[in-house]
Amino acid sequence: MTVTATIRQRGQLTIPDQVRQQFSWIKENAVVAIITSPLGEVIIKPLSIHASSDKPDWNELWRKITLVRSFKGKRGNLSKFIAKDRYRH
Amino acid sequence: MATSIVVVDSSVIVKWLNQTNEQNVAQADILLGHAQNKSLGLAAPELAKFEVGNALTYKHLSTPELVEAISLLYSFPLTFVSWNITLAALTAELAATYQITYYDASFICLAEHLHAPLITDNPKHQKKVKGVTVTALKDYR
């Protein structure tokens, strides 16, 4: 489908109703990824940020966090390892 | 859809998987609790998958334990954002301007891109960047 729209002040663009009706992710306050291509195109994609509305099984998640944190291993302070590792390369 | 979004550094994500010799684990849990109770959206560059996976490998877990930990990493309500040329170019600019690594810069880049704060347990270098709110995990409430 191709529709036309006019870009207004400061780059504001209203996505036409016909397009909004096709995609439920086009709604107020949705965060989107705006991608430019070497061909001069601008692509808008949904940037799905998980939230509680996605209903992860939180009880199961916290249970697994407790389990995984109980694994001893041989080394710790992994956040420091990550910070140092970024400057090792 | 989340009502607000924060970008989380790998140094924070890893605390949901490890507590051995880690500081600020309680603050990391508060942050995850806000994702649970306050519809806070969590995002990170895809790089975080590899950094955290590498850190877990460094911990020398048994193979089943490592697989369990990696599996949990992928089940967090956390959006891993793929990098494209736009984000890569901005990351490179930030790294060059502030003399920080491309890795550090990628998290700041995403925060800037999403107009979101960055929560990190590695603020030393990332706090150099102006125009992006960088919150040390120890100060997160």
Structure write-up:
The complex is a heterodimer of chains A (89) and B (141). By secondary structure, chain A is an alpha+beta fold. Chain A has 2 domains: 9-46, no CATH class; 52-85, no CATH class. Chain A has helices at 17-22, 58-69, 78-85; strands at residues 32-36, 42-46. A two-stranded antiparallel ribbon of chain A has the order 1-2. Chain B has 141 residues and is of the alpha/beta class. Chain B has 7 helices and 5 strands; from the N terminus they run βααβααβααβαβ. Chain B has helices at residues 10-13, 25-37, 47-58, 63-73, 85-98, 102-114, 123-126, and strands spanning 4-8, 40-45, 78-81, 118-120, 134-136. In chain B, helix 3 (47-58) runs antiparallel to helix 4 and helix 5 crosses helix 6 (102-114). Chain B is globular and about 40 Å long. Classes of the chains: A alpha+beta (89), B alpha/beta (141).
Strand tally of chain A is 2
- Tell me, what's the shape of chain A? elongated
Helix run count of chain B? 7
Major sheet strand order of chain B: 3-2-1-4-5
Oligomeric state as shown: heterodimer
CATH superfamily membership of chain B: 5'-nuclease
Average pLDDT of chain B, rounded to a whole number, is: 93
The count of β-strands of chain B is 5
Biggest sheet of chain B, in brief? 5 strands, parallel
The H-and-E topology of chain A, N to C, reads as HEEHH
User: What is the percent of helical residues of chain A?
Assistant: 25-40%
- Please state the structural category of chain B: alpha/beta
Main beta sheet of chain A: strand number and arrangement? 2 strands, antiparallel
Q: What's the helical proportion of residues of chain B?
A: 40-55%
Ordered list of secondary-structure elements with their pairings:
The complex is a heterodimer of chains A (89) and B (141).
Chain A: H1 17-22, E1 32-36, E2 42-46, H2 58-69, H3 78-85
Antiparallel strand pairs in A: 1-2
Chain B: E1 4-8, H1 10-13, H2 25-37, E2 40-45, H3 47-58, H4 63-73, E3 78-81, H5 85-98, H6 102-114, E4 118-120, H7 123-126, E5 134-136
Parallel strand pairs in B: 1-2, 1-4, 2-3, 4-5
